[in-house]
Amino acid sequence: MGSRQPWTTAHGGTDRFFQPTARAGRPDQKLKAWGSYPDWSALVRGAIVWAGQPDPEMARESVGGEAEPDAAQLRGLIVGWQEIDPEGEGKTAARVVNTLAERQGVLSGAPRSAGGPF
Length: 118
Description:
It contains 5 helices and no strands. It has helices spanning 7-10, 13-23, 38-50, 56-84, 93-108.
């Protein structure tokens, strides 16, 4: 059924990755600690940067800016859902869509259909 060792042990992943950095004395890459993970930051990011690869922090920073609109949309969805279901009774997706269609019809002045879109 194969080895039950973790991948990093069975395939020498961590050894191959960290040994060269360790042999070099784990040179300080002068990286700002990543949040509350200073040891991980020094070990893992330090090894990555020492090996000549880009600092993972750069990817984190670029994704952070892109994720902000998604976070705002998610907050809007949660607030909107609370408006549609203030008692927290639970609504089906069809019921929510119908409610939104009715509200939109009222706001735009368009006639509402008897059964809604569903």
